[in-house]
UniProtKB/TrEMBL annotation:
Record EC number: 2.7.13.3
Enzyme class: transferase
Residue ranges of every copy of the Signal transduction histidine kinase subgroup 3 dimerisation and phosphoacceptor domain listed in the record: 179-244
Protein name: histidine kinase
Catalytic reaction list: ATP + protein L-histidine = ADP + protein N-phospho-L-histidine
Keyword Kinase: yes
Signal peptide location: none
Gene Ontology terms for molecular function: kinase activity
Length: 379
């Protein structure tokens, strides 16, 4: 109970309260018209001018019920309490108008839109006013029970809608976080691959610039091509993010596009081997295999020492497909380095599809990355 009270007390106001709109003005107009008509035409109402004016005085508080829920509740229920005090000090018959039921809306809004302290103080004030009203009207146990159930029903509805909206906002935040992580992986995998290729080509260009001008020109052309591809992919991502009505999505690269990563005349040499039935892979698995191979190749080019060859091997094994990327670089002795964003993103890709990923020094030297994914991604 102590924990519950503390959690309620520290509860902030819900975000996203809508501003005053047409419906709010319509609600105020309906209650005001009902109070005037009832004050004029309803028989048996004592002190008609006073009761009608007080009813009209509380109705504008409906406009504050979301922006200032505590003040609105204090005004509305304060008018109701004032009528009870008047009836207690100068018994004059019935002082209630049915249009005063607007205070139930204020109670609902207090629990729905108020902060923890506002809810505590506001409901305490409402409880005192209700108890006073029941005492003045000499209500029987049946009336007390029925009135209490009605008030608790409004409180329960407000709490239910409040926490349902809070759950929805949490789900939206979780979805946005997942999209951000996916975007981060895509940016890392695509841009880092091309930038690494540009860096390697630039280093080679510096070596041959003075002795082999023709070779240097070829390297510069390759750098230009890689830079253009990087810029095109970046523009495509930005276009998707900025276009509110959707963009034309290019098909994701897959296993069939791995051959484009093969390089025979450059250093390191990249060899691609595909084995088994790889044409009917699930789309998420197909795209993940390409991204995992691309990132593994990028890591080998950027981080492996004295690497001359990188092998990319993909083979079907029953209901699973295995990707193996290995290089012949020199492995430094000592503990393995801490995984960076690339390896973390690769592991997340594999886990999201129900697979696994391992990376570490190979038995014959170099570095080996192995991923095993199901042929069909889990639903």
């Amino acid at each position: 109970m102590v924990t519950v009270r503390r959690s309620i007390w520290h509860e902030p106001r819900p975000a996203g309260a809508p501003p005053v709109g047409r419906f709010d003005w319509l609600l105020v107009g309906v209650f005001a018209a009902a109070a005037v008509v009832e004050g004029i035409a309803r028989p048996g109402v004592a002190w008609r001018p006073l009761v009608t004016v007080l009813a009209l005085a509380l109705i504008p508080a409906l406009l504050w019920r979301r922006s200032r829920p505590l003040i609105a509740a204090l005004v509305g229920w304060g008018v109701a309490g004032l009528l009870s005090v008047v009836q207690l000090t100068a018994p004059a018959g019935d002082l209630d108008l049915y249009s005063m039921m607007a205070v139930l809306t204020l109670l609902y809004s207090l629990v729905r839109w108020g902060s923890g302290p506002e809810i505590v103080w506001g409901t305490a004030f409402v409880t005192v006013v209700v108890a006073l009203g029941m005492y003045v009207s000499s209500a029987g146990w049946a009336d007390v029970f029925g009135g209490s159930v009605l008030l608790l029903l409004f409180v329960a509805l407000a709490a239910a809608f409040r926490y349902r909206a809070d759950l929805w906002r949490r789900q939206q935040r979780e979805i946005r976080n997942q999209e951000r992580m996916e975007l981060a992986r895509e940016l890392h995998d695509t841009v880092a691959h091309h930038v690494s290729a540009i860096s390697v080509q630039a280093q080679a260009g510096r070596v041959v610039a003075g002795t082999e001008p023709d070779k240097a020109a070829e390297i510069l052309a390759a750098i230009e091509s890689e830079a253009s591809r990087t810029l095109a992919e970046m523009r495509s991502m930005v276009r998707v993010l900025r276009d509110e009505e959707g963009a034309a999505f290019a098909p994701q690269p897959g296993v069939a596009d791995l051959q484009a990563l093969a390089r025979a005349g450059a250093t390191p040499t990249v060899e691609v081997s595909l084995d088994g039935s790889l044409s009917r892979l699930g789309r998420p698995v197909d795209a993940a295999l390409y991204r995992l191979a691309q990132e593994s190749l990028t890591n080998a080019v950027r981080h492996a020492r004295s690497v001359t060859r990188v092998g990319i091997d993909v083979r079907r094994e029953g209901d699973a497909v295995r990707l193996r990327v290995s290089d012949d670089g020199r492995t430094e002795p000592g503990p393995a380095p801490a995984p960076g964003f690339g390896l973390l993103g690769m592991a997340e890709r594999a886990q999201l599809l129900g697979g696994s990923l391992s990376a570490g020094p190979g038995p014959e030297g170099g570095w080996v990355v192995e991923a095993v994914l199901p042929v069909e991604a889990p639903a």
